[in-house]
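We emphasize that the prediction below concerns an isolated chain of 295 residues; any contacts that depend on oligomerization or on bound cofactors are therefore not represented. The input was used exactly as deposited, without trimming of termini.
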Amino acid sequence: MSVKKKKLGGSDTKFAYALLSPSIILLVLLIGYPLIYNIVISCQDVPLNPNLPSEFVGLQNFIDVFTDPSFYKSVAITLLFTVVVTSISTVLGLALSVFLNRPFFGKKLVNSIIILSYVVPAVCLIFTWRYMFNNIYGIVNYFVVDVFGIVDKAPLWFDQPVSAFILVSIFAIWKFFPYAYISFNAILQSMDNSLYEAADIDGATSWQKFKAITYPAIKPTLVTVVSLRTIWVFYIYTEVYLLTKQVDVLGVYLYDMAFATHDFGKAAAISIVLFVFIFALIMLIRKKVLRVEED
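Result of the prediction step, given as a token string:
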């Protein structure tokens, strides 16, 4: 009987591998091959003309990356952008989910409005923002210049590094905070209200209820939200590039290196560095999440 079961188990395993083989082949073709090819390019001087041969330069592209002041400037901007967007969007999503975790008239409508920026395509939101802050016909400049008279001349919001960074950060927070709101709201909706009722009887304040009841329940979700949002914001590209050319995050820096200066070898080296950093970050986050779940 045991031999028969072992044979059946082996047969099931082979059948499972047969079913998974198309997905494995697809992953190898779409992820494995580009990654290996990118590593090869990072060690070459790739000419713009595809008919010309590439020259092997070893680690020179990586040396050029780590000796380029623009790279460190881009890293600093990306880290600041990631910290600002991740922290504020998480706190905002958590605060709204806690505040709105009660029955009231129009709750479904409010929830729909909150998640609107998350479900609407980013391109639509980007062009809306570009239109709002246009220096000729934008509604923001209309109020700033014509209505309130704060300044005499309409500012070029997305053409100045500081104002562009602030606006892009606000846009990213507005775009991404509903993810935190949805995640925390799902946990809060599933919690037992009798815990809060018992705390009210004992005379607990709102902060004491949050610290003793809410926070322990949302702690694993909080770690996951912060972790995923950190990774997503760190390699953000589309939203920043379409809004402005003044915020040189790593995604924009990489794109310009590849398609503006056509230094494909250096661009490939930058992507390898980013891959190693993000992979290490994912492993660290995974370890942290598992530790929180065990606690």
